[in-house]
Amino acid sequence: MKQKLKMGVIGLSAVFLVACGAGSGDKLTIGTDAAYAPFESLDGDKIVGFDADLLDAVMKEAGLEYEMKNTGWEPLFIALQNDEVDAGISAITINDDRKKTYDFSSPYFESINMILAKEGTSIKSAKDLEGKKVSVQNGTTGQEALEKMFGANENIKKFDNNTLAIQALLNGEVEAVVADNAVVQEYAKNNPDKKLVTISDKENFESEFYGIIFPKDGKHQEEINKAMKKVIEDGKYADIYKKWFGEEPNVDALKQ
After folding, report:
1. Cβ neighbours of residue 69 under 8 Å, at least 6 residues apart?
2. Among residues 65, 48, 14, 31, which one has the least CA distance to residue 215?
C-alpha cells in the first residue's frame, strides 16, 4: 500500500466497485486489509495499492465482475471460512499451515521479512532481536519467524496491523518492527523525518510468496490462475510492479 496512502490511515471499511468485461454473471466479493501499504491502503474511500491494481487487471482478464471490501486482517480469514467473501488479496503469504484451511492462487509476489528500527540502533540482524521488544502484525509470517527463533514470548508485541506496529516503534514502546520488506522500505522512504533504517537478513528470514486466497473448494480459482498467468506474461504485471515499486520485477521467481 503504497503510498498514495499514508501508513497512518487505518480502519475504515470501504467498498471499491469495478465492472469488468463480459462478466460471468457473478459479482465476487474480494476481502482485504487496507492498512498494508503499498499493497493495499485507503485513499479516501477507495482501496488502492499494488494488490488492488493487480486484482483489477486479473479480474478484467478473467472477465469477472467484483467488489473489493476492506474487512481487516484477521476478520478476512473468518469471512473466508464463513463464505462471506469469495476470495481475499492482502499480501497473504502462501504457507503449508494456511493451505490446511484455504486454497491459494498461483504466486504473484516474492517477499521477505525485514527489520525496521531507529537510526543508531545496534540491531544488525534478526539474531540481535533476542531479548528486545519487537512489534509485528498479529498472525503474520513476521510473528512466525520471531517465534521460530526465540519462542513465543512477551517481548513480541502483536498488533492488529502494521500501522500500529510501526507506531509502537515511533513511540519508543519497542526497539524494532518485523514486517514484509516492501512495507518497511516504503514507510522508511516516505517518512525520512522519522529517521528509520531497514535491516535485511536473508539468512534468518526466508523468501516467501503471496497468493490470492480462497475458501477450500471455492469457485473461480482456475480461471483466476489463468488470468494471472496472462497478466504476468503480457507485461501488465511488470507495469503495475514498476508503478508501485519503481523497479522491474523478477517474474522468473514466480514460475518456480
Report:
1. 13, 14, 15, 29, 30, 31, 32, 85
2. 31
For the stretch 190-210, pLDDT in tens is: 999 999 999 999 999 989 999
Backbone angles phi, psi at 4, to 5 degrees: -80, -35
What is the spatial distance between Cα 144 and Cα 137, in angstroms, rounded to a whole number?
10
Cβ partners under 8 Å of residue 95, min gap 6? 141, 208
Kind and range of the H or E run holding 47: strand 46-48
Is the CB of residue 142 less than 8 Å from the CB of residue 95?
A: no
d(CA 69, CA 47): 8
Cβ partners under 8 Å of residue 106, min gap 6:
211, 225, 228, 229, 254
Instruction: Find out whether 55 and 29 touch, Cβ atoms under 8 Å.
Output: no
Contact predicate 106/227, CB 8 Å: no
Q: Per residue in 33-89, pLDDT tens? A: 998 889 999 999 999 999 999 999 999 999 999 999 999 999 999 999 999 999 999
Cα dist. 144→32, 91, 141, 167 in Å?
21, 15, 5, 21
